[in-house]
Amino acid sequence: MNLYMVLIATVVFLFPTAMALIDSMHFFQLNSYRFDTHTKWMKENTRKYLTHIILSLLMLIALFFDMGVKFKAVALIALLIIAIPNEKPKKAKKPLVYTPRVKRMFFTELLFTALVLGLVSIPAFKGARPHETYFLMALALIYTFAPALCLVANLINKPVELSVNQYYTNDAKKILKKCPDLKIIGITGSYGKTSVKYYLTTLLKSKYNVLMTPESYNTPMGVVKTIRGSLKATDEIFVCEMGAKWVGDIKELCDIVHPHHGVITSIGPQHLESFKTLDAVKGTKFELADSLPEGGMLFLNGDDENIRDHGCNRPYISYSIEGDADYVAFDLHVSERGTSFKVKTRNGEEEEFSTRLIGRHNVLNIVGAIAISHKMGISLKELRPAVRRLEGVPHRLQLSDKGGVTIIDDAYNSNPSGTKAALEALSLFDGYKILVTPGMVELGEKQDELNREFGRNAAAVCDYVVLVGRKQAIPIKAGLLDKKYDEDKIFVADTINEALTHVYALNAQGRKKIILLENDLPDNY
User: Is pLDDT at 442 greater than 90 in this prediction?
Assistant: First the structure.
């Protein structure tokens, strides 16, 4: 085998290898850079790598069979033409973000590849011929295992990443120490925490300078980035959303920001794949309560049975739309135009509120925000105009009227409680009610059961149902059919684009289409 053959083979292997590395890094990022999560995902998506492995084997065959240099060159170029479209990263809903961590991992992958190829090339410097075979075999192996190289790079870089994260975390803590008068409110919960965060921030801004963690910056590094990049000396309150997928996640966040007050919006079967049990979810959410200082206020959703069942060994303030609590919403009037309600406190104060937002669940979240704001020194009367100004949280039952179509965008995430709230909101509208959903994920062993129940609930509200994803559709469709739903009014699409194309082409029999977009799974599902 001559030098020209080696050069051709190198180009043939390295070009698709680079694409495979980018693609695997994208999914590793979507899987939160967790080794166990990503390896499990790879096992569940072996078909994704089948073509990759076949191409690798064909390249090896082309290299080592005695077919003549020209024939091998043609064969390798042909395989390259086939490999590029297969390895080229597909258009993603959430593209790879080239964070400093990702760049460091790519650099490590490059060094690792160069080291392997350098080691097998050592015989060449001694005049030995077999180095070509070893070199090409190394190329083939690197290409074959490219999807797993992100795991190797992550392992190598782990000490560096821990050091970098610790530096930024310590810097954030120093910044907070320089703001002794800043009041920090931690918000956690299986559902509703982002909505309460947005509503609370709007209400508090009627009197205070308020910073909140933006979007879904609810991880340690997201919170640290917010503090380091956005906290100003004039800020009086920091509203900090706290997310969790693993036991100890909330405690880790509390150890960074040391909240003065806390809110637990709900507890439910969210992220059961990582938490395993509902008791683990309860314990993790109440890590916030355990972290509050003496005199700190804890606010609990009094309507959540899991919060009530867990119990609390410290004083707390409850809010509710159903029963006895320190802040209770009552006399609710909900329509597609908005919601009005009254709030009564334990000591007898009462005020009437109205909002453009729809749904009982939104009222519950607003009451939680009202309770906190009131305890922070804003009167119920002062809160009335702020409640009227509240806007829908992006992709959380966000309304969009487009003439002949109304979109209820609840695509950010989905859970058992959220699907019920979304279907309740859909039921308020007059029109041809269409559900578009891939269902719920990360529910562990209960996932199929809960999706089937979702289907049964949808059957009572929807005129038409579009399910996204063949595998995901199975339990939801079964639930619909449990309720004798007309199978002709169920459509299963492979992608969200196919689903929406079908929906817009539907004959709504002269009625206005009301489309509920319930969840939009990222590319790793």
Answer: no
